[in-house]
Amino acid sequence: MTLEEMLTHVDHTLLKPFAAWDEVRSLCEEAIRFHTASVCIPPSYVGRVRAAFGEGLKVCTVVGFPLGYSVTEAKVAEVRAALAQGCDEIDMVVNIGDVKDGRFDAVREEVRQIRDACRGHVLKVIIETCYLTWEEKEALCGIVTEAGADYIKTSTGFGTGGATREDVEFLSAHVGPGVKVKAAGGISTLEDLEMYLKLGCDRVGTSRAVGLVKAILEKDA
């Protein structure tokens, strides 16, 4: 897989709390230039990005981010607001407290409601693997599959750990055939990116991949 092909699987990401418009605009320009899968940006920038860049850019945003413990009604409202402003893809965080309490029916119902709210758009479910046992990860694989989400995603990048080889292999083995895997968190090298794609990830969330590829291409030019 070439560098350019790898970038087509990247959600070019900028979610730091002090992200300013000039940085978001630069992110979008890079995404268009290098044909990334999407840009993943804060909800407050979705409408502005859509107005500035039109339909030539896939826009992803986050819901219940980064802690996941917003009430379901708030998460659903976030989804509807994002879609109304032109968002294409939603990355939601599960209620990790409910997971730790074994309230899997509540988690399942929340994911189902968000799936219904963003019907026709891509839904990725962030489970924040660094906080979970293997049993909890397996249960969430079943929930994400049953709810009809498009992706299970390892991490927010704001937890105590990010994606790992072991987690990606585990999630890939336990989700249903219609669910893809997205790795995110701590992916800082092209070797990381290549590894996760070879492990079967369809998407990788990172803020660094485009810059690394750009540096190589400009050096070789």
Overall description:
With 221 residues, this protein is of the alpha/beta class. The mean pLDDT is 97. The radius of gyration is 16 Å and the shape is globular. The chain has one domain: TIM Barrel. Helix content is 47%, strand content 16%. Strands 1-2-3-4-5-6-7-8 form an eight-stranded parallel beta barrel, surrounded by six helices. Helix 4 (72-84) packs parallel to helix 6 and helix 6 packs parallel to helix 7. Helix 7 links the parallel strand 5 and strand 6.
Q: Termini, distance in Å?
A: 20 Å
Annotation, overall tally of beta strands: 8
Oligomeric category? single chain
CATH topology label: TIM Barrel
Q: What does the overall shape look like?
A: globular
Structural class: alpha/beta
Q: What is the total domain count?
A: 1
Roughly how many Å is the radius of gyration? 16 Å
CATH architecture: Alpha-Beta Barrel
**Portion of residues within helices:** 40-55%
Main sheet record: 8 strands, parallel, barrel
Catalogue the unreliable spans. Answer: none
If strands are numbered along the chain, what order do they take across the biggest sheet?
1-2-3-4-5-6-7-8
Q: What is the string of helix and strand elements? A: HEHEHEHEHHEHEHEHEH
Keywords, separated by commas or semicolons:
single chain; 221 residues; alpha/beta; TIM Barrel; 8 strands; globular
Give a short summary of the structure.
This protein has ten helices and eight strands. By secondary structure, it is an alpha/beta fold. It has a single domain, classed as Aldolase class I (TIM Barrel, Alpha-Beta Barrel), CATH 3.20.20.
